[in-house]
Design a protein that fits this description.
With 314 residues, the chain is of the alpha/beta class. It has 10 helices and 12 strands. The chain has one domain: Class I glutamine amidotransferase (GATase) domain (Rossmann fold). Helix content is 30%, strand content 24%.
Length: 314
C-alpha cells in the first residue's frame, strides 16, 4: 500500500527515486475502498493444492479480496472430487456477464501439446477474449503465460531438450517497474516446464516489456505497459515440497527425470529443501494486486472501459 506524506516533504523525492509508492493527501481522500473481485481460473489437475497456494499469495496484502474460483466446463477433472467443484467452483458460463478487477489463469501440464490440441482450448480462448472487456488485469501463470502470449501476440512456444526443473536466480531488468517494487536485484523462483518462450520472440512487440529473466531459465516475467496483461512463466506460488512431489511422481512412473536444480541440499532427494523463494512470491502478487489492479481499476466495475481510458485511483 502507498505511504501518504506531504507533497513538499524532502523525503518524498528520495523515496520516489527509490521507486517507493507515495501519495499526497489530495490523492488519498479521492481513493474509494471496496473488496477487489478476483477470479481464479484453475487449470491444474491438483486443484485443491493449487488454489491453496495461490490464495495464500493473494491474501497477503492489506487489500480485501473476494475470490471466485473457476474451472473449465469443457474439461472433465479426474483429480478433484466432483463435490468440491460443485460446491466451490463456477464455470465461465456462470460469470461471463460479470466484471472483475483481476483474473489469474494457472498453469496446466499440457505444454507439450499444440495449443489447439488442448481439449479446452476453445473455451480458454473465449475467456481470454472476454477478459479484454470484463477484467482489468490478468495474470497468466506458466503454461497460461505461453498460451496468453500466443493468443494475444502470436508468440510461439519452443520445446526444450530437457525439462526446466528447479529453483533459478533471476535478474530484475528495471527496478522502477511497479510489479517489481521492493525486489532484490537477483531473486529466486521455481520453474517446472518442458517448453519456453524466448526473449527474441518478445522483443519488439509494441507495449510488451520483459521485466525479469534468468540466464539459465530464460524469461520469467513480462507485462504490457498498462498492466492489463501479465505473463509469469514460472511457479512462484509453489510451496516447499511441490517440486519434490513432481520429482517423486515421475520417478514412480519410471520417467527419465533429473533432480530439480538448486533445490535439494547437495542434490540429495532425501534431504528437505529450503524454502528460498517465498518472500518474492508474496511480494509479486501483492504488487500485482496493488499496482495493476487496485490503483487502476474503477471503483464501480460497471463503468469499466476496456480502451484503457479508466482513470487511476491515485
Amino acid at each position: 500500500m502507498p505511504v501518504n506524506i506531504p507533497h513538499d516533504l524532502p523525503a518524498r523525492s528520495v523515496l520516489e527515486q527509490e521507486n517507493i509508492f507515495v501519495m499526497s493527501d489530495l490523492q488519498a481522500v479521492h481513493q474509494d475502498i471496496r473488496p477487489l473481485r478476483i477470479a481464479l481460473l484453475n487449470l491444474m489437475p491438483t486443484k485443491i493444492q493449487t488454489e491453496t497456494q495461490l490464495l495464500r499469495l493473494l491474501s497477503n496484502s492489506p487489500l480485501q479480496v473476494e475470490i471466485t474460483l473457476l474451472h473449465m466446463d469443457t474439461h472433465e477433472s479426474k483429480n478433484t472430487p466432483q463435490d468440491h467443484l460443485e460446491t466451490f467452483y463456477k464455470t465461465f458460463g456462470d460469470v461471463k456477464n460479470q466484471n472483475f478487477d483481476g483474473l489469474v489463469i494457472t498453469g496446466a501440464p499440457v505444454e507439450q501439446l499444440k495449443f489447439e490440441d488442448v481439449d479446452y482450448w476453445g473455451e480458454l480462448v473465449k475467456v481470454m477474449e472476454w477478459a479484454k472487456t470484463h477484467v482489468f488485469s490478468t495474470m497468466h501463470v506458466c503454461w497460461a503465460a505461453q498460451a496468453g502470449l500466443h493468443w494475444h501476440f502470436g508468440v510461439p512456444k519452443h520445446g526444450l531438450g530437457k525439462k526446466m526443473f528447479g529453483i533459478f536466480p533471476h535478474r530484475v531488468l528495471d527496478e522502477r517497474e511497479a510489479l517489481l517494487r521492493g525486489f532484490d536485484e537477483v531473486f529466486l523462483a521455481p520453474h517446472s516446464r518442458h517448453t519456453e518462450v524466448r526473449r527474441e520472440d518478445l522483443q519488439g512487440i509494441p507495449g510488451l516489456k520483459i521485466l525479469a529473466e534468468s540466464e539459465e531459465a530464460g524469461v520469467l516475467l513480462a507485462a504490457t505497459s498498462d498492466g492489463r496483461l501479465v505473463f509469469l512463466t514460472g511457479h512462484p506460488e509453489y510451496d516447499r515440497l511441490t517440486l519434490k512431489s513432481e520429482y517423486d511422481r515421475d520417478i514412480e512412473r519410471g520417467l527419465s527425470i533429473e533432480v530439480p536444480r538448486n533445490y535439494f541440499p547437495e542434490d540429495n532427494p532425501s534431504k528437505e529443501p529450503p524454502l528460498t523463494w517465498r518472500s518474492h512470491a508474496h511480494l509479486l502478487y501483492a504488487n500485482w494486486l496493488n499496482y495493476c489492479v487496485y490503483q487502476r481499476t474503477p471503483f464501480d466495475l460497471e463503468t469499466f472501459r476496456p480502451s484503457g481510458e479508466d482513470a487511476e485511483r491515485s
